[in-house]
């Protein structure tokens, strides 16, 4: 029981910290939100995926103002959660609304390991009947999220009356997420199986977008592309990155490193979500000493995640995260860099300045992503 309470506490704190850290998530939301309805900013599903997969902020957005009926029209075709798929946000494209609460809720799920899906569900299932009703879900959610979060959903010019209106129980309805979970009439219930499938599909969809942005073949990644995907969310000196890329490129030309499939990339994201368990496994097995061998790495991954990487992928990971480009993995540095990556991937807190080339690459990736929604 105490362990369950601990995990519930972690989930609550993650949702709160997403907003409390330094308001980066709040700024990110408003930078990408393209709709405005009754004083509130909303993202489209396209805006949401773009906010997760784009490093830079978009061009200046002029939000489209919707009235109540237009908002209903925009979300009424949302499919049921029973037919949820890993193309849900792609299929919805610009036809949907995602509130600031939805945004934070989805971010909190993005980095959750599968072992905590049940705990997340039970957190909202107050009457313990194995099903969630909309009122039950949002009543619990509104208690978790701080007042500051609810107020930040409004523009700075909003009135106190509008602020108070937002805190009412009906403030979260008529969004794509609420219709997906509870139907357009909001009378359907959400089962754990559907909740589990939604989170899994959501994570896969985001991972696939990240994969597609860096894959030139759209089938797999070269080790150099894999490294660029990783370093795009790690704040490291440019000279360190350039040395790593040069080292990997030389090995690729020598056919010493193979290509990495999407399945293996998904394993890497799963490792990120299970990073605490991975670190714990290293300590339990006395594997926290430097340097880590390939066999020890696989052993810890298998214990914490339930799978092993392909041997050539392990070699690639060691080469990418090697401090001196010597193929040896420092445990402390590896864990630190993965924590840095996971934090940056969600909050987009990148300190490195953007060059003209970076902006050009971001523009190209944005066009690729837009074509994926068509």
Automatic annotation (TrEMBL):
UniProt-listed Pfam families: EF-hand_6 (PF13405), EF-hand_8 (PF13833)
InterPro entries: EF-hand-dom_pair (IPR011992), EF_Hand_1_Ca_BS (IPR018247), EF_hand_dom (IPR002048), MICU1/2/3 (IPR039800)
Biological process according to GO: calcium import into the mitochondrion; mitochondrial calcium ion homeostasis
Annotated compartments: Mitochondrion inner membrane; Mitochondrion intermembrane space
Gene3D superfamilies xref list: EF-hand
GO CC annotation terms, alphabetical: mitochondrial intermembrane space; uniplex complex
Keywords linked to the UniProt accession: Calcium, Membrane, Mitochondrion, Mitochondrion inner membrane, Repeat, Signal, Transit peptide
Signal peptide limits: 1-18
Stored PROSITE patterns: EF_HAND_1, EF_HAND_2
Record domain EF-hand: where: 112-147, 309-344
Gene Ontology molecular function: any one: calcium ion binding
Name of the molecule in the record: Calcium uptake protein 3, mitochondrial
Naturally occurring in which organism (per UniProt): Trichinella zimbabwensis
Lineage: Eukaryota, Metazoa, Ecdysozoa, Nematoda, Enoplea
């Amino acid at each position: 029981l105490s362990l369950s309470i601990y995990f519930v506490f972690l989930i609550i704190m993650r949702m709160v910290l997403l907003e409390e850290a330094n308001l980066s998530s709040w700024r990110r939301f408003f930078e990408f939100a393209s709709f405005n309805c009754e004083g509130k900013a909303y993202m489209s599903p396209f805006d949401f995926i773009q906010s997760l997969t784009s490093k830079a902020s978009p061009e200046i957005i002029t939000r489209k103002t919707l009235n109540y009926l237009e908002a209903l029209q925009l979300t009424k075709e949302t499919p049921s959660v029973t037919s949820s798929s890993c193309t849900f946000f792609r299929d919805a494209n610009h036809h949907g609304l995602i509130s600031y609460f939805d945004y934070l809720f989805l971010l909190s799920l993005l980095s959750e390991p599968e072992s905590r899906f049940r705990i997340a569900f039970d957190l909202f299932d107050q009457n313990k009947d194995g099903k969630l009703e909309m009122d039950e879900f949002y009543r619990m959610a509104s208690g978790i999220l701080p007042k500051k979060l609810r107020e930040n959903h409004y523009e700075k010019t909003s009135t106190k009356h509008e602020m108070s209106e937002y805190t009412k129980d009906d403030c979260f309805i008529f969004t794509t997420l609420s219709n997906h979970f509870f139907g357009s009439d909001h009378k359907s219930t959400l089962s754990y199986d559907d909740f589990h499938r939604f989170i899994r599909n959501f994570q896969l969809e985001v991972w696939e977008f990240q994969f597609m942005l860096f894959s030139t073949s759209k089938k797999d990644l070269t080790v150099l592309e894999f490294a660029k995907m990783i370093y795009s969310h790690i704040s490291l000196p440019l000279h360190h990155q350039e040395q790593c890329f040069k080292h990997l490129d030389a090995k690729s030309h020598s056919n010493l490193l193979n290509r990495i499939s999407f399945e293996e990339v998904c394993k890497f994201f799963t490792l990120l979500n299970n990073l605490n368990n991975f670190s714990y496994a290293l300590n339990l097995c006395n594997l926290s000493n430097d340097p880590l061998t390939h066999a020890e790495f696989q052993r810890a991954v298998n214990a914490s995640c339930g799978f092993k990487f392909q041997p050539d992928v392990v070699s690639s990971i060691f080469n990418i995260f090697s401090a001196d480009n010597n193929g040896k993995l420092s445990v402390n540095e590896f864990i630190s860099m993965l924590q840095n990556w996971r934090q940056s991937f969600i909050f987009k807190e990148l300190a490195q300045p953007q060059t003209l080339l970076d902006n050009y690459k971001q523009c190209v990736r944005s066009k690729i992503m837009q074509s994926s929604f068509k």
